[in-house]
């Protein structure tokens, strides 16, 4: 198991370095610069600013300097948020994004797995068709449609919940963002669980358990659930990373001061280091969660780590 884990960790390092290189080149290939504005700076002031932020160096020199900073845990200073580093901005916004994402993922896994299991056990019945249809709607309708509709219905028409983060206090202002984040994940998880559970329930070891007189609940809980979760684990890695860091659309619609809003502001303001820092952080989180998924695969299925 230790060798299996070390191989996965060693494989993740070049992937992260490649992501850093591609993100760096794409950000610097965008037209304009972080200090471009309608007001033209005097040449001597512009030269001093470029020297202070090392923008006067060649692109390879800037890249090596940035990689060295990343390896030492320094994502650089923000060009627009003065007196703040990118690490400080992410650290300030991350707890809120993770709080929303954790609640959304908890709801999504609970509801999605339950709905998928019920649909699999009631295959080709009305219940199965209802679950499948609702899941297809959840997958098809994007978040940037769901979130404004929820604001229109529950905040504007019914006036049950605050329309934005600043417009309320307490758990009420968490409800709509969390549900908007959770709904698409519920749909995906329900579909994956249903398909996987149907395949497992037709397996030989499940037929043997039925022949021994075990109840359906016992078969699902003690025999079918673990192998049925294997395909779902592959999806959970990037899904958890996306939800935990907060959806850009959801945070923008509800005015939540999370990581997603900083990413949008950084892109609009050409804040190279802020966009790069959030991209690198997100990539590292995805790689780390995929690594955890690989290790869980090895725990749930010993044949994988043996190979």
Q: Gist?
A:
The chain has 307 residues and is an all-alpha fold. The protein has helices at 2-29, 43-52, 59-71, 86-121, 126-140, 143-157, 172-201, 204-211, 216-228, 230-244, 248-253, 259-268, 272-300, 302-306. It contains 14 helices and no strands.
Describe the structure.
There is one protein chain. This protein is an all-alpha fold and 307 residues long. The protein has one domain: MetI-like fold, CATH 1.10.3720.10. The protein is 76% helix and 0% strand. It contains 14 helices and no strands. It has helices at 2-29, 43-52, 59-71, 86-121, 126-140, 143-157, 172-201, 204-211, 216-228, 230-244, 248-253, 259-268, 272-300, 302-306. α10 runs antiparallel to α13. It starts with a helix and ends with a helix.
Give the CATH architecture: Orthogonal Bundle
CATH class: Mainly Alpha
Report how far apart the termini are: 11 Å
- Helix/strand-derived category reads mainly alpha
Q: Can you count the helices?
A: 14
Along the chain, the helix and strand elements come as HHHHHHHHHHHHHH
* The CATH fourth-level homologous superfamily: MetI-like
Principal-axis shape equals flat
Give a short account of the largest sheet: none
Task: Count all strands and give the number.
Answer: 0
């Amino acid at each position: 198991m230790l060798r299996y884990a070390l191989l996965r960790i060693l494989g993740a390092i070049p992937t992260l370095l490649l992501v850093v290189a591609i993100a760096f080149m794409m950000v610097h290939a965008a037209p304009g610069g972080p200090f471009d504005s309608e007001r033209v700076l005097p040449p001597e002031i512009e030269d001093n600013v470029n020297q202070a932020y090392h923008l006067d160096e060649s692109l390879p020199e800037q890249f090596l300097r940035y990689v060295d900073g990343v390896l030492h845990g320094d994502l650089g200073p923000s060009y627009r948020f003065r007196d703040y580093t990118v690490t400080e901005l992410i650290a300030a916004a991350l707890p809120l994004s993770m709080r929303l994402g954790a609640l959304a993922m908890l709801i999504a896994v609970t509801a999605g797995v339950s709905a998928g299991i019920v649909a699999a056990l009631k295959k080709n019945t009305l219940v199965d068709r209802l679950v499948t249809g609702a899941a297809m709607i959840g997958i098809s309708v994007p978040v940037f449609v769901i979130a404004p509709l929820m604001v229109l219905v529950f905040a504007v028409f019914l006036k049950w919940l605050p329309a934005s983060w600043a417009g309320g206090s307490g758990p009420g202002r968490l409800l709509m963002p969390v549900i908007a984040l959770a709904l698409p994940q519920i749909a995906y998880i329900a579909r994956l669980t249903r398909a996987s559970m149907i395949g497992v329930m037709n397996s030989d070891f499940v037929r043997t358990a039925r022949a021994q007189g075990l109840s359906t609940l016992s078969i699902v809980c003690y025999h079918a659930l673990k192998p049925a979760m294997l395909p779902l684990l592959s999806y959970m890695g990037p899904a958890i990373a996306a939800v935990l860091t907060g959806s850009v659309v959801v945070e923008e619609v509800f005015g939540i001061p999370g990581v997603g809003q900083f990413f949008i502001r950084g892109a609009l303001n050409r804040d190279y280091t802020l966009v790069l820092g959030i991209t690198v952080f997100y990539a590292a989180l995805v790689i780390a969660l995929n690594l955890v998924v690989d290790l869980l695969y090895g725990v749930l299925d010993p044949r994988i780590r043996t190979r």
